[in-house]
Specification:
Helix content of chain B: 40-55%
Distance between the termini of chain B: 58 Å
Number of domains of chain A: 1
Number of helices of chain B: 26
Largest sheet of chain B: 8 strands, mixed
Radius of gyration of chain A: 15 Å
Helix content of chain A: 55-70%
Oligomer: heterodimer
Distance between the termini of chain A: 35 Å
Strand order of the largest sheet of chain A: 1-3-2
Structural class of chain A: alpha+beta
Strand content of chain B: 5-15%
Chain lengths: 107, 861
């Protein structure tokens, strides 16, 4: 899994958790902020992905620390590595694009 | 935070059962919290639309999650369930088609009604951020007050104003056209946040160059052939040229549809020369966080300041600030719409209860199968799903049929919407309405399917051993409850339908005071440049020409339409009258006017040509005026002072009272003066046609003659008197039609329910009835006993329903006409009718049961 590109949903969830633990709804709001309404989903979709990320070892539930009555989730070191890896990959891609002068927005 | 969305959360919790148990156990509670937060966020701005949107997100999410988390195994199981449900439904075609047809009709009515309610009321105004728009209600402000309100930047981000011009403006050209003009401030469209179809949203500052105008979309398409280069062109109006700066969007209807906008309020305002007699309706856009109540207080403080000249005709303390949406709909219409919505809800509830019983009855036959399945380890949730699916599929099919029926009947229902409802033009079968149709179907499916599903899935092996015995008593209890509920709900709708129908019939029977049949009204506007003498010549010529047309029997003119919208006040001081002064309305009419309209002349005579030169102003008064001014003795020859006209008049005739406002309002006190003696440029030519077939044929020749006599004359519209009268009862007609349909459907469905419930109760009691027959009870006795058993709950339901209808009578109070919303006769008749229907409905199955062969019955299981 580490070398494969992350799906947009996964990437945005990991990004949301990069600053610290959040509960599910806050993750959803953060994803909507960073990814726009195209990735906007709903509670169930977020928890499903979180569960799969947990299985992959990228995310863990923060025991005991609850916001209100809700469970909170945090990045594992492995998850942070995956996020950084993906960020590097995207930067690399951006560089490629810029070098070919494909992007209309770059000077 | 106080618990919110209690019902929604409960429904959501129920839907969570779609998810696999492990997933649900871990994330369910959090998801419910998230859902509540989502709903709170969505409904913060738009309570109803937000709720719909929130649910859409939640349901889509659940469907996605459930299929993803469950994987294919469950999906396959559901597919099997669907297949089985379809097979079962197909095996009983009569049942299935009957249910789908009934639901289809019910859902079609509900959908069409929702389309009306949505278009007229629920839909947010098509402006930018409409929740922040408010209007000063229900009077205007003086120009000075307006300037002060506009300076309140802490309360309003921006303020605009408009005023009606009572004088329509004529657009010159080959076919002069009279236009309704609204005078607005420069920023009118900007404040509303509306873009014009062409041109700029803002008028330029006045005082530089030509005066400006924004055209209505209809005028632009019909008169100027949708010329894309219209902006910047000069157009000639009767008062001079104006430069077109924009074309309004086709759906822009505020404050009136098909208006032209003139930047005239502002030439007064922006030149900062307040005039005390000018007044302006004020619209403001609230600053974030400011409430309408707060804005109300601000406006109140301004109008109470003694240094600001107030608009002098406004009663004190009459102002408040309301949301623009409320203001454009009005309390009367809102009340009407809320009632329609309530009616639909009750109708759907009856349909759901009915279907619920049918499903329980059907399902009990499968108790053995359920018990076996449970014994084999089927989880309860799977059984619930199985039963619920059947209900949902029936409801979905019903919804589909309903939507098709709604499409088919839409034009008919659309025609019911009164033309006077400003937003009536927005009634359409759009995406919102189709979502409503789906939601209604879903609600019916869940409401009717959930209870049977929960109940039947409980069936255990013991129930089978006890041979339905517990089932029977429980089922008859449920049946009685449903009979009572359905009858009660039906009473409410039937009472409502009867009252509205009664009102409509009474409106039709009202003596208008004139004969509207075969009467045609042609509205003419003479150019303002035409002198009084030329105007009279013109009218004489038109009379001669039109009078010579075939089909025309008589013609007359007046300066007001047959059915008036606005009042023109006048005070009369009667000579030798003990009364102080009386407040009347007035219109100018030509000779023969009352004869043409078919108004009874009570005393004296009509105006004649000779009155043109009479020394004292001759006047005709209505019966009530004559009675009030001179209760004793004859009015003819008496004189009175018309205060506003400042003339002394002599009564030459007394005519019967006429309902010249909306039919539902009492005949106004009227004074009539002669058109021959005053300058009248706004004319209503009234023509009595010899036979009904001539009505259509006559319009073109009349137009031709009117225009031939003077091409500058505009003809804004031609209407039949029947239409005009019809318009004024259109709201009652719509309510009556819809509520009658509600009532009839409710009655039909509820009585089908009673019949079904009785029939079903009987089948479980075959053995008992056999014993009774064997013991010597006559078959007629059996029938009587069974009918009586249904009648008791029906009677209780009728009583409860009647009380509910009585309690709700206030809501109907404004809408009924000529009858009390608590009319005892209606209530008694409806109650008796429903009981009679319940007897018939239960007698049919009871009679069949009484024909049992006792020996066969005793052998029944």
């Amino acid at each position: 899994m580490p070398d494969a590109p992350l799906t947009p949903a996964v990437f945005h969830i990991l990004l949301a958790l990069a600053d610290g633990p959040l509960h599910g709804y806050a993750v959803m709001q953060a994803v909507e902020r960073t990814a726009g309404p195209s990735l906007s989903s709903g509670p169930g979709t977020i928890y499903g992905t979180i569960q799969r990320l947990e299985d992959a070892g990228f995310v863990r539930e923060v025991p005991g620390a609850r916001s209100g009555r809700r469970r909170q989730y945090a990045l594992t070191p492995q998850g942070r590595r995956a996020l950084e890896h993906e960020a590097r990959r995207l930067t690399q891609l951006a560089k490629l694009v810029r070098a070919r002068r494909i992007s209309p927005h770059e000077a | 935070m106080a618990p919110r969305f209690v019902l929604s959360r409960a429904m959501y919790r129920l839907l969570l059962s779609l998810l696999p148990a492990t997933f649900r156990r871990r994330f369910g509670p959090d998801m419910e919290e998230d859902f509540a937060e989502l709903m709170a966020a969505k409904t913060a701005e738009q309570p109803i639309a937000g709720r719909v949107r929130g649910w859409r997100v939640a349901v889509a999410d659940l469907a996605r999650t459930s299929s993803r988390e469950r994987g294919h195994a469950t999906l396959a199981a559901i597919r099997l369930d669907v297949k089985e449900a379809v097979r079962r439904l197909v095996r009983t075609p009569a049942f299935t088609l009957g249910v789908i047809a009934t639901l289809g009709v019910g859902l079609a009515v509900a959908t069409l009604t929702f389309a009306i309610v949505d278009g007229v009321w629920l839909r947010p105004l098509p402006y930018l951020d409409p929740d922040r728009l408010v209007m000063v209600s229900s009077y205007g402000l003086s120009t000075a007050e307006f300037a002060s309100v506009r300076a309140e930047r802490a309360t309003f981000t921006d303020v605009t104003g408009y005023s009606w011009s009572f004088a329509p403006l004529t657009l010159l050209g080959d076919d002069p056209q009279m236009l309704r003009q609204t005078l607005v401030t420069l920023n009118f469209l900007e404040v509303l946040g509306v873009r014009p179809a062409l041109g700029q949203p803002r008028f330029d500052d006045p005082g530089t160059g030509d005066r400006e105008v924004m055209l209505s979309h209809r005028l632009w398409t019909q008169r100027f052939g949708s010329d894309p280069a219209i902006v910047g062109r000069r157009v000639m109006f009767e008062d001079g040229p104006r430069q077109v700066v924009g074309v309004l969007a086709p759906d822009f209807f505020f404050p009136a549809p098909n208006q032209i906008l003139m930047p005239d309020v502002l030439t007064v305002l922006d030149a900062a020369t307040p005039k005390p007699d000018r007044w302006i309706r004020v619209i403001g856009r609230l600053q974030p966080g400011v409430t309408a109540a707060r804005a109300s207080a601000v406006v109140d403080a301004i109008v109470q300041r003694p240094d600001i000249p107030a608009w002098r005709l406004r009663p004190p303390g009459a102002l408040s600030v309301r949301s623009l949406a409320d203001e454009t709909v009005g309390d009367y219409v809102r009340n009407m719409m809320a009632l329609l919505f309530g009616g639909v809800a009750v109708l759907l509830l009856i349909a759901s209860l009915n279907l619920m019983h049918v499903l329980v009855a059907r399902g009990l036959g499968r108790a053995r199968e359920v018990a076996v399945r449970r014994a084999l380890g089927a989880r309860r949730i799977e059984l619930v799903r199985l039963f619920l699916l059947e209900a949902l599929m029936l409801a979905a099919a019903g919804g589909g049929v309903g939507w098709l029926l709604a499409l088919w009947a839409f034009d008919f229902v659309r025609a019911l919407v009164p033309a006077a409802l400003v937003r009536g033009t927005f009634v359409s079968l759009n995406a919102r309405v189709s979502i409503a149709c789906v939601s209604f179907a879903l609600a019916v499916g869940v409401l009717s399917g959930l209870f049977p599903a929960l109940r039947l899935s409980r069936a255990k092996a013991e129930d089978l051993l006890e041979r339905h015995s517990r089932g029977v008593s429980a089922r008859s209890r449920l049946g009685k409850l449903l009979v009572a509920l359905e009858t009660g709900l039906a009473v409410v709708l039937v009472v409502g339908g009867s009252l509205m129908m009664n009102s409509f019939v009474r409106l039709g029977q009202v003596d208008l005071g004139f004969q509207p049949d075969r009467l045609l009204q042609v509205h003419l506007t003479l150019p303002s440049a035409m002198s009084e003498a030329d105007g009279h010549d013109y009218v004489d010529r038109v009379f001669t020409d039109v009078g010579a047309l075939p089909f025309v029997r008589d013609a007359a003119i007046s300066d007001m339409p047959l059915v008036m919208r606005a009042t023109r006040g006048e005070d009369l001081l009667g000579e030798g009258s003990s009364r102080d002064k009386i407040d009347v309305d007035w219109r100018a009419v030509s000779p023969d006017y009352f004869h043409v309209l078919g108004v009874r002349m009570i005393d004296g005579r009509e105006f004649t040509r000779a009155d043109r030169h009479a020394a004292v102003e001759p006047a005709i008064v209505s019966e009530s005026v004559a009675r009030q001014l001179w209760p004793e003795g004859r009015a003819i020859g008496r004189r009175f002072l018309a205060v506003a006209h400042q003339i002394t008049c002599e009564v030459i005739g007394v005519v019967a009272d006429m309902r010249s406002f909306a039919v539902r309002s009492a005949p106004p006190l009227m004074m009539y003066l002669s058109t021959d003696r005053r300058h009248v440029s706004n004319l209503y030519l009234t023509v009595r046609v010899a036979n009904a077939g001539g009505m259509e044929a006559i319009v073109a020749p009349i137009r031709q003659h009117v225009r031939a006599a003077d091409p500058r004359v505009a003809i804004p519209d031609v209407r039949t008197a029947d239409d005009l009268v019809g318009d004024s009862v259109a709201d009652t007609r719509m309510e009556a039609a819809l509520f009658s349909v509600f009532g009839a459907l409710a009655l039909g469905v509820a009585m089908a329910g009673v019949a079904g419930i009785t029939a079903y109760a009987v089948t479980g009691r075959t053995k008992e009835l056999g014993i009774r027959l064997a013991l010597g009870l006559a078959p007629s006795g059996i029938a009587r006993m069974l009918v009586a058993e249904s009648l008791v709950p029906a009677a209780i339901g009728t009583a409860v329903g009647s009380s509910a209808a009585l309690a709700l009578a206030n809501l109907l109070g404004h809408l009924v006409f000529g009858i009390s919303a608590r009319d005892p006769a209606t209530f008694a008749l409806v109650a008796a009718g429903l009981l009679a229907a319940a007897i018939v409905a239960s007698y049919v199955p009871a009679r069949r049961a009484s024909r049992l062969d006792p020996t066969m019955a005793l052998r029944a299981e």
